[in-house]
Amino acid sequence: QVQLVESGGGLVQAGDSLRLSCAASGRTFSNYNMGWFRQAPGKEREFVAAIGRSGSSTYYANSVKGRFTIARDNAKNMVHLQMNSLKPEDTAVYYCAADRHHIMSVTLTRGEYDYWGQGTQVTVNS
Asked: Which residues lie below 8 Å from residue 41, measured CB to CB, with a gap of 6+?
């Protein structure tokens, strides 16, 4: 069992930055592929960023590439999402996810993730 808790969301203006954090339970965190997804009201949960076990492999959605950075600290069981140059269309609830049974270097689809956090709200005003 894995428990994930997101934090760091808030209300910002367009162009501002936020850093989201995800704290994971368990002693095998370093074996998990990790990812960030987001969901706006009335829309499906969409992929944002993914990172492999060691942190050397990362992948980003085109909509955030060049603005967002995913990173992990396996010693602290933490995953972060640094969000720069935020836009109103980034407004959503952001979710941290863990994949314990992966075969690929990164996990890109929501159906493959085993555990999800409760989400943290990010609101970007124009």
From this structure: none
Neighbours of 44 (CB within 10 A): 8
Q: Outline where DSSP puts E strands in 74-117.
A: 78-83, 92-99, 115-116
Which residues does residue 69 pair with via DSSP β-bridges, in sequence order?
Answer: 82
pLDDT digits (tens, 9 = 90+) for 64-78: 999 999 999 999 999
Cα–chain center distance at 116:
10
Specify the amino acid at residue 107. T
pLDDT band (50, 70, 90) for residue 26 = confident
Which candidate, 61, 46, 62, 53, places its Cα nearest to that of 105?
53
